[in-house]
Structures are given as structure tokens and as C-alpha cells.
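Q: How would the C-alpha cells look for this protein?
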Amino acid sequence: MKGTGFSPYISSNRNRAGLQPPRHGSLKASDQKPGPLNSLDSRPEGRPSVRPGPTRLGILLSGRGSNFLAIAQSIRRGRLPGVEIAVVISNVPDAGGLKAAAELDLPHAALVSKSRPRADHDADVIACLQSHQVDLVCLAGYMRLLSPQFIAAFPNKILNIHPSLLPAFPGLEAQRQAFDYGVKVAGCTVHFVDEHLDHGVIILQNPIPVLDTDDAQSLSTRILAEEHIAYTEAIARVTSGAYEIRDRRFVPKMAPGGSQR
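A: Here is the predicted structure in C-alpha cell form.
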């Protein structure tokens, strides 16, 4: 691994002695209902290629990881067939999401970013993801901008969820931005990550009305509930492979007869 001064890997409970945990954590595709198995390739248009084996997610987080836990629950309940969590990584060593990953017996790693050059830290995260054979990276409250080298390492294979209806209210405190602006409809967006902030191709958006009784906190809470639904749906759409990207549009492929696959 490149660089120094960061916490070592924290392996799964099944293999604490080594740097690389077992290929499967407790949330395995084999524990789920049968479904299509897909892996993403690096073609510029971002279209997936199908191969045997589950789609392996790498989760990046900085805090409690509520979206990570929602994804884990969806896998456990069979809502994401053919998908498993390969590793959970945090740049914050005491993040609640890491503790949750340990409790779920999932491979996890603390790669501390504080006081480290961005390029060095990102190189370590990239190496960790690649060592766990990650197909799709999911940002779940990861409070860092990704470097161009990171984006290049996983082209069209990084998802993010943002608590506004982009392109409105990018950046921090999007819920409060929306509330203070007086919008009547708020919501969340799941999108591919590119080199710009909250900018990549939109996969889906879940809108909610802003109630007259809302304040910024209650609106944030209701948006978060939608995030937990939206992220699972977005992962399902991407891992299905039944889409194409036209300019900035995520377009589901149509099955014979005119219905969406």
C-alpha cells in the first residue's frame, strides 16, 4: 500500500490475522433468492457486462452509515439478488458504520484521511477496493471529494446519493438549503459520480412534498427515509445491466412488448 500514517485494515471477524478477509461476508448472494448476476465493465458508456458471480459492492462512509445499513438490509431480505457487500471502508476510524459492519461480520477497513495528501489516501482506498474485487462503489455519507485518479479507477462504477433533487441545492446541508429557499417539493437523487460535485448522470430521484408543518430537521428526516428506498432501487437498476446512457440521460432498456426490464 502506498503512504503511511493511517490505520491498518480491520478484517472481518473470521480472519483478523490477515489483510484480506474472506471473499464473502455474512451478506452473501448465495443466501438470497436467485437472480441475475452482473458485473460492471469500464466502457465509457458505463454499460455492464454479464459474468457469473455476484456483483460486489464497496461501501465508503464517514459516519453512522444509515444508507449502508439500508443496503445491507435490502440484501439480507432478498431485494438485491446477485449482490453482496465486499468491504466497508471509512476515512474516520471511529465511524459508527464501521462498528455496524463488524457486527454484521462484514470485511471492513479504516483508512484515515486526516493529515494525509489526498492522492496518497485515495490510492490506498483504491487498492483496498481492488483487493476485495469490488465491482460497484457506493458512497454512503462519505464526506470527501474523490480525486480524478479515483474516478478514473472506477469509471461509471461509483454511485452517490444526495439529499436534494439535483441539480438544485448541491453541496452540504442540501435539506436546509431547500427548506430555507421555500421549495414545495424536495427529495433525493442517486447519481453516478464524475469529476464535479453532485454532477454525474442521474439514475433516479424520489420527490416528497414539503409540508406546512415541516422544519429543516423534520424535512431532513423524511428525505433520509426516501434515501433508504432510493439507493436500493438505484443499485438494482445499475446491476441489472438493463440500461444505457445517452448524453446525460439514464435510459432503461425496454423488454419485448414495450415494458421496462
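The radius of gyration is 18 Å.

Residues 9-14+22-246 form a domain with the Rossmann fold fold (CATH 3.40.50.170).

Upvote if useful.
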